[in-house]
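Posting for a labmate who doesn't have an account.
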Amino acid sequence: MSVLVIETNVCIIGAGPSGSTTSIVLSKLGISHVIIDAAVFPRDKICGDVLDLKVIRVLNQISPSIVSDEMMHDENFVQITGFSVNSTHNKNHRIQYEPKSSDPTFPLFFLCKRKYFDYFLVKKINPQYANFKQGTRVIKIEKLENGRWKIQAVCASENIEIYCNLLVGADGDHSIVLRSLGERKIDRQHYAGGLRQYWKGVRGMNNANHLEVFFSKKFPLAYLWIFPHLNDETNVGYMLSSELIAKNNLNLKNIFTDLLNEDAIISDKFKNALPLEKTMGWGLPLASGQRKASGDGWLLVGDAASLICPTTGEGIGPGMISGYIAAHFIARAVQQKQFNHNLFKNYDREIYKRLNDDISQYNLLRKLPIALLNFIISAITFKGFVIYFINKRVNKWVKTAYQKSITIQFD
């Protein structure tokens, strides 16, 4: 089999939202690069499917027309206008956000299956600057004596060798880049297990354009979600700390099934519903661990950098922001023809600073006794002042996503 040799300054491994965002922004900055992915798009990805305001903010930075002219008019992007947070042990303990008539008409979130959204992004990769290799599996990465990287990959028709100055790991939690760097370690205190299952015919949703989240008394830091898709389909899932799973020898699938079948508040919604797939599981590397995400000649973005928000489980938004930031650090490195860590020493600060509040909250809450956590959740889901606080915060978040530029401080 022939060997294709490619020389480039920058190689991105992984073309999910984080990697494709890095590529799209690099192209806007005029930087040529290679991007490879083992999959051929479109492909499925286990996820809650929520595109939060961080996603919207990045897309607006790339081009405001993506949201206003494309997503707003594409039925595959379900426009989410509100949400409710519920306690499973008391039906009166719930808070619900409804936009006021005076609020901006923009949606708070979009809901879109990853098979569609990831392909939507990949199609925006610019072939003028990006050499995109789909269906290409990396089998080996090594650092050469001259400081460059050699990447060996294989696709259906040929072997590929890529030589680059800067390696970008955008290949998720099981990243071959992480393994090559010797950094693939799981800390259960900063890791979670997640399940997803698509259903049809779920009833009792408060609003067809609302997200619903449920906290249980037994595991208050875990939550179950019910998110509405098109055609009477629903994304249903559950997230629980790996620390709790290991400490209590828990079976995540059994907890999930019990909630759907036996919980007094949740089970009614599923009486006549049908699952559309088996329960699918995946791991969630949380940002609370604050993994080192840069070094001499390498950067990490998205799940490879463990950037999942520890309080919400949301990973697409933080991942895309990291891709946006990474592209600007990379462009500076290419322009200066320097790829050592000095050029990237503040990259970690920039990708974590938008998650610092969530990290602090999570690290505090996970140390509290379960009884105290339940008291806090009950108070939050019962007190009226929380609605006032949420209204103020949501309006600020919407304005930030639709009106405020992403600023990056290199020094």
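Reply:
Got it, the structure tokens are right above this. The two ends are 47 Å apart (CA to CA).
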